[in-house]
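Lab notebook, bench 4. The sequencing result for the construct came back, and we need a structural model before the next group meeting so we can plan mutations. Quick request posted to the team channel:

Model the 3D structure of this chain.
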Amino acid sequence: MLLGIVSDTHDRLERTTRAVALLCQKGATNLIHCGDLTGPQIVHACAALPCTYVFGNNDYRVNELRQAIEETGGQNLEQGGLLTLHGKRISVTHGHHAQTFLRLVADEPDYLLFGHSHFPLDDRDGRTRHINPGALHRAASYTVALLDLERDLLEFLTVSA
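Done. Here's the predicted structure in token form:
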């Protein structure tokens, strides 16, 4: 199973649409958005794939976002939570709330996905692989990530400006 991971889209609709299309082209079957969507149009762009969302520190319009997520059949983990895909325990948060981050780390998931820093990261801490896909706004290079859950392989993909 190939999992697309995006974060920090900050209402950049055209770039987000290109990012989701790139992930689909590469074979992603599911998508996780690690927060800072900022507007419901981003939810609709991400809905090209079954998508799970968390809210970030710039997601002020949470009621509109919740409604868009519900309308598109997405899964909303609010500030952060755990899901299981392809037998892997995956925790997701934006990364701006230390308590949420530490709570999810303590669960020792297979993967901890987050955003917020606008920098791609791939690091292991014990049994947990920490992944930040980068950002589609305010970044030196706009990146998303593609995670092969079966083979535990991660690829960062660059999205054109």
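The chain has a mean pLDDT of 97.
Will bring this to the meeting.
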